[in-house]
Recover the amino acids of this structure.
């Protein structure tokens, strides 16, 4: 998991990933532009350092904050991202979820229930909010995120002919089966919290059904 954030009211930077994380975990800062990058369960330190370098690059023109954030996320993915989404055979999904969010200074804090995506018509959404979730072993979510971001940029940011707006290439990941894609779509639509609840309920009902079957079989055996 990688988090990239910028402090707009202070030049002090810091990061903390905790003491019980699996390698690689750590953080890097650039105090000159007030940005901090951190993550855990990463392929290597390069995931964080490459993200920071992409964000702070001076040769990409006067690109605004959202462009720099998007490139930083792609650089982190190109470096391997979350190692839990990769395997030793060379497959690299690098993440199952990716999002980019930027709020304007006059917008209130934004929250959303755990495991449930907000409605695109929610009036409290930040100026920029794009989230993509893919199935385990599916395509790299950074690919879909980039496509949606480009569409958003065309509507909300001015053209920048002198800027480097090209995407940083990322590993493609895989392609889940149609059934998995359908399940994931439904999960995103109704919320992961509801899906977890339904799974628990299904498990309880299965246990009850097995118990009833066992008792009936035992009763028939006793009658015989």
């Amino acid at each position: 998991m990688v988090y990239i954030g910028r402090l707009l009211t202070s030049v002090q930077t810091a990061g903390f990933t905790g003491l019980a994380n699996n390698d690689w975990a750590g953080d890097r800062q650039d105090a000159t532009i007030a940005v901090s990058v951190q993550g855990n369960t990463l392929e290597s330190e390069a995931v964080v350092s490459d993200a920071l370098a992409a964000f702070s690059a001076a040769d990409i023109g006067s690109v605004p904050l959202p462009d720099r954030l998007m490139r930083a996320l792609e650089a982190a993915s190109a470096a391997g991202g979350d190692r839990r989404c990769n395997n030793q055979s060379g497959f690299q999904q690098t993440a199952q979820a990716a999002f980019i969010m930027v709020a304007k200074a006059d917008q209130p804090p934004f929250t959303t229930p755990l495991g449930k995506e907000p409605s695109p018509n929610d009036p409290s959404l930040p100026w920029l909010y794009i989230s993509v979730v893919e199935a385990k072993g599916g395509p790299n979510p950074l690919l879909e995120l980039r496509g949606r971001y480009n569409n958003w940029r065309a509507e909300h940011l001015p053209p920048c002919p002198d800027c480097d707006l090209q995407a940083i290439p990322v590993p493609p990941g895989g392609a889940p089966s149609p059934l998995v894609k359908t399940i994931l779509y439904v999960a995103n639509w109704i919320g992961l919290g509801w899906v977890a609840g339904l799974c628990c309920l299904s498990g309880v009902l299965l246990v009850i059904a097995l118990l009833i079957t066992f008792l009936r079989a035992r009763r028939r055996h006793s009658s015989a």
